[in-house]
Specification:
Blueprint: H1 3-8, E1 18-22, E2 29-34, E3 39-44, H2 55-67, E4 74-78, E5 81-85, E6 90-91, H3 94-98, H4 100-120, H5 130-143, H6 152-166, E7 172-174, E8 183-185, E9 190-192, E10 199-201, H7 203-213, H8 218-229, H9 235-262, H10 269-289
Antiparallel strand pairs: 1-2, 2-3, 3-5, 4-5, 6-8, 7-10, 8-9
């Protein structure tokens, strides 16, 4: 059955529908669907065990995020299908998020994610522990005889050092995929979307991901941390943050290596791997220099 056939078969539409693919998804196929009354976003995607993606967890997180006022409503769901309310909005870019005025709007949304969603979440919740994810990715890559296997002993050693350096750890409900495109601006407020990787984690992972994915300057990173924690930045917090930022970049690198083998979505994963590996090495070298 084609994606269009699956969407037609949902039985929730009023009259004929128009289906337009939404570009950019690299773990789902997303569509804007219009019937004679409303527009909806339809996300098609099965569980992806190699990436720790469980669609039941994504559904529960999406519902909790809406209940917390952060994300669009879930209109309908079925195995492999999530239908969301459509928000007329613009997806942010890294350039948008780097703007100081936009970052001032983004930080309260991230804080609300960490503090409010857990109160609304129902059912068994996931934990997204980046160092477990890193070890599991490397084990899967070894089993698949990845072309990057000569790098893994060194990357594992660096991950172990980052895990030791990152503590003590706070625990909060994390989004765990702080790409610019997951923030929507409707002209009045911001929304946070796409809960594929949601689960309990340390807030510094999301903050490190926000900075690394959007290429913040050091000044912007320090400003972000002070705005989030609402206290002057200490050297201890800065050190722990740097460790989690490195872990975020290493996880993104390994995610792309795994996707090179397993993904069927048309995307330049090899280029993405090279880009993120270089960024990880630069961040790790800076982290080491501060020891």
């Amino acid at each position: 059955m084609t994606p269009e056939d699956r969407i037609h078969a949902l039985g929730i539409w009023q009259g004929p529908i128009e289906i337009v693919p939404i570009t950019g998804g690299i773990t789902n196929r997303n569509y804007l669907v219009r019937d004679h009354a409303v527009r909806r976003v339809v996300r098609l995607g099965e569980d992806i065990p190699v990436h720790h993606i469980n669609r039941q967890n994504e559904l529960a997180a999406s519902q909790a995020a809406h209940a917390a006022g952060l994300s669009p409503a879930v209109i309908h769901h079925a195995p492999g299908v999530l239908v969301l309310d459509y928000i007329e909005s613009k997806a942010l870019t890294p350039e948008d998020i780097r703007h100081p005025e936009m970052l001032e709007r983004v930080i309260p949304l991230v804080r609300a994610c960490h503090h409010d969603i857990a109160r609304e979440f129902r059912g068994a919740a996931a934990i997204f522990w980046v160092f477990h994810v890193i070890r599991d990715y490397i084990a899967n890559l070894e089993a698949a005889n990845s072309r990057y296997r000569q790098l893994f002993p060194n990357l594992l050693a660096k991950a172990e050092w980052l895990e030791a350096a990152g503590g003590p750890f706070e625990i909060a409900f994390g989004h765990n995929d702080m790409l610019a495109a997951n923030f929507l601006d409707d002209g009045k407020r911001l929304w946070l979307i796409d809960w594929d990787y949601a689960g309990f984690n340390t807030p510094l992972f999301d903050l490190g991901g926000l900075a690394s994915n959007n290429e913040f300057s050091e000044a912007a990173e320090r400003s972000m941390l002070e705005a989030y924690y609402r206290v002057p930045l200490t050297e201890d917090l800065w050190r722990r943050y740097q460790a989690m930022k490195c872990a975020s970049l290493l996880r993104e690198t390994l995610w792309s290596m795994v996707s090179e083998i397993h993904s069927t979505i048309d995307f330049d994963y090899a280029g993405y791997t090279a880009e993120n590996l270089a960024r990880f090495e630069r961040a790790y070298d800076a982290f080491e220099q501060d020891r």
